[in-house]
Amino acid sequence: MSLTDLKRRKPKPRKKLSVEEFIEDANNYAFGQPSLAKKTRKKKPTNESMELKKQSTKIYRHATFTLTEQSIEQLNELAKTANVAKSRLIRMMITDFATKDKNELASIIENSQD
Asked: Where are the alpha helices (DSSP H) in 5-82?
């Protein structure tokens, strides 16, 4: 590190965000999308487009669970061949499992090797 790195620089002016924009920016960050603060300000969306956006946005929660090495390998292989994110695959499997009747569930659980 040289002394030029320690030079005081003028801070870049920050764009003022409303509360809604701040929350939306946090959601964008969580989903890996570009920040609103870095974009140029656009006209505010209409109520109709905001309603559509809210309905189409799914809220996800972080979850931690334990899998066997074999399960992890199978999940990785499925994700590669299907070209689908692992978390989405797990959500799809849970949905599929939840739609089965009690007899099918009992059979699956009974035949499980875990």
From this structure: 19-30, 47-56, 69-82
